[in-house]
Amino acid sequence: MMKNIMSVDLEDYFCDLPFSSWSNYPSRIIETTNTLLKLFEKYNVAATFFTLGYVADSHPELIEKIVSLGHEIASHSYSHIDLRKISKTKIEFDLKKSISSLEKVSGEKIYGFRSPFFSISRDNLDCFDIIKKYFKYDSSIFPVKTPLYGISNAPRFPYRFSSENPLEKNSNGELLELPPATLKIPLYGNLPIAGGFYLRFLPLSLIKYGINKLNKIEQSAMFYIHPKDLDVNMPKIDSYSWHYYHNLKNGKNKFESILKNFKFSSIRDTYSF
Questions:
Q1: CA–CA separation, 189 vs 153, rounded Å?
Q2: Can you identify the CATH homologous superfamily of domain 3-270?
Q3: Global pTM?
């Protein structure tokens, strides 16, 4: 059976709020991440944890446990920054801070990055001038069109590129891009089937169909999950919209069904860096 790629965006439920407010909320990340780790152990899954530097500093014992279980640590920034909304100077400062924290706690070299909110768009592709300085691979370009993010005509499958033109394949490029999984729908475009909210929102049969279709053409599906996607007890936050809480009650069962039916590995175990 073909191996797909499992990734986790390791952040607490309140991390979509401004960083300055985080201390006002009780953390649930130990409990919710342990739920994921138990499922991964049950189904022999190695995953890449795109981790906030803040989480590493706040819960070093959690990062040490993740590493001890054979998973990979990669960067998800330090403070869950939206790359579309801050200066390049602040982006670089944040990424360097995240790498320092993650490498110190994990004891491992950090090779990969995924931007919070999939916040690389056509308007800020020059962020890759910074990203290429610190990372070997990226998983920030979502080849979909949604109100929140996406570059609809970006390549759907893994490709190398040069920072001069991040949307064009270049076998000699500095960075490897690993887009989240999509299903191409005639007359519609690319449907996101990669996990997260889509795991809770879409019919399970459609997600499985999409992964199978990718595997039949020898393409691994890049799947992602947040610990909060399985948290039926996630506290209510007034500013959060409906999609944060939609179908949380079925998140774990749907995710476990995906793990039962497909093989997954980490990015590190799939590619050489």
A1: 9
A2: Glycoside hydrolase/deacetylase (3.20.20.370)
A3: 0.97
